[in-house]
């Protein structure tokens, strides 16, 4: 099955002019925290630069005495929506690095997301909540950089079965942080969500990195538990370079069609209506997945100062960055846009269904810290264009989502029913 990954095109180069990925320079180099020596791969004949020492190659590698030092990225949740997009992003922008994908191929994991790059990465089927297994993965590959995307992330499914969400999102976050402490890495990013802040109060503009965690759903509470553990690691283990991001709602290619946008597109392409919970006026902050990948990569490679003592009472001083394109749209408007994009009548093709329990009404985050301190800005800031290319991707890749429905059945929820029977 061929999957079109060229549309939308990958975002432009991340780094500001002159900036490059930091890697360990040689087998004898020592990082800022006296971390382990670099993994070195022979490249054949010895070649020395004018200095007789080291020559710099592309971003992600350098040569020293005829040897190549190659950066190793460990990406968890690599077969999921955002993780797979990040793997594609890495291979597009850092083609010479080694990428190790980890995923336990749970409900949202899909190896078809990596089909076009499968021969360019190493892949481990593993549960991030299993310390013994994950430590062995770390020791086998000795990663330089770790990005933990792995999470159970669907609010509806968390209501039906919250235990698996707690295992992956809370225990998994702690296990990953512990592995990066036991087998030191250059930097580690824990990827989290806007939803840990809870529901935005009427009259409030947005949340910031200083906002208290106030999660109210089983999914977001599990993510908040993981966040709290990562924050504890940030302040307890100064030699562990761990950072955190919170993202707005993502959209783009490879998203499992249980989420609003791909569910809407695939329903319409199958002659079905778009289901909208309640009145559809739940308001969300939307971010293209490629802008999210670019922001995470920027955070991963940022040269950040040590965590100050003042962070104990001011979480805004922790290495936490909120990622948003400042694009607030209601669920009903999303549904109407998708229907119109496919040339159909929104009044005919949208149906309002019973709302799910405890549904957040509104949330929005402020990306000022990320923009002012690290120089990130969204590239896909035209939401209408982003929706158009996303709808086109699903229309062009029907084999991808048809196989998902064949394997998993219908993915929508009917909250007029109770418990597991709510799955439509």
What attributes does this structure have?
424 residues; alpha/beta; seven-stranded parallel β-sheet; four-stranded antiparallel β-sheet; 12 helices; 16 strands; globular; disordered N terminus
Question: Would you write up a description of this structure?
Answer:
Helices cover 33% and strands 17% of the residues. It has helices at residues 81-93, 131-141, 155-160, 163-182, 218-236, 260-269, 289-301, 331-341, 346-349, 368-374, 383-396, 398-408, and strands at 40-42, 54-56, 61-64, 67-70, 72-76, 98-103, 122-125, 145-148, 187-193, 242-247, 249-251, 274-277, 283-288, 320-323, 328-330, 350-353. A hairpin with a 4-residue loop joins strand 2 (54-56) and strand 3 (61-64). Helix 1 crosses helix 7. The radius of gyration is 22 Å and the shape is globular.
Entry summary:
With 424 residues, this protein is of the alpha/beta class. It contains 12 helices and 16 strands.
**Number of helical elements:** 12
Largest sheet: 7 strands, parallel
Major sheet strand order: 7-6-5-8-9-10-14
The class by helix and strand makeup works out as alpha/beta
Arithmetic mean pLDDT: 86
Radius of gyration, rounded?
A: 22 Å
Which of globular, elongated, flat, extended, rod-shaped describes the shape? globular
The percent of residues in helical segments reads 25-40%
Distance linking N and C termini: 27 Å
* Relative strand content: 15-25%
Low-confidence stretches: 1-59, 62-66
What's the helix-strand series?
EEEEEHEEHEHHEHEEHEEHEEHHEHHH
Set out the fold topology.
Elements: E1 40-42, E2 54-56, E3 61-64, E4 67-70, E5 72-76, H1 81-93, E6 98-103, E7 122-125, H2 131-141, E8 145-148, H3 155-160, H4 163-182, E9 187-193, H5 218-236, E10 242-247, E11 249-251, H6 260-269, E12 274-277, E13 283-288, H7 289-301, E14 320-323, E15 328-330, H8 331-341, H9 346-349, E16 350-353, H10 368-374, H11 383-396, H12 398-408
Parallel strand pairs: 5-6, 5-8, 6-7, 8-9, 9-10, 10-14, 11-13, 12-16
Antiparallel strand pairs: 1-4, 2-3, 3-4, 13-15
Helix pairs in contact: 1-7, 2-4, 4-5, 6-8
